[in-house]
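Protein in question quoted for reference:
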Amino acid sequence: MVSNTSIRETLVTRKLVKRELTDKEITKKELVKKEFTKKGTASH
């Protein structure tokens, strides 16, 4: 029982970590997009 609980907890934490990483990637992409739009408007 104890091992099952720990395994479940590890899976949950792993999911949370994955979600955090994906969120970071998304925010990074958004920032890059913003930078590109800034450069685009500046070049025009």
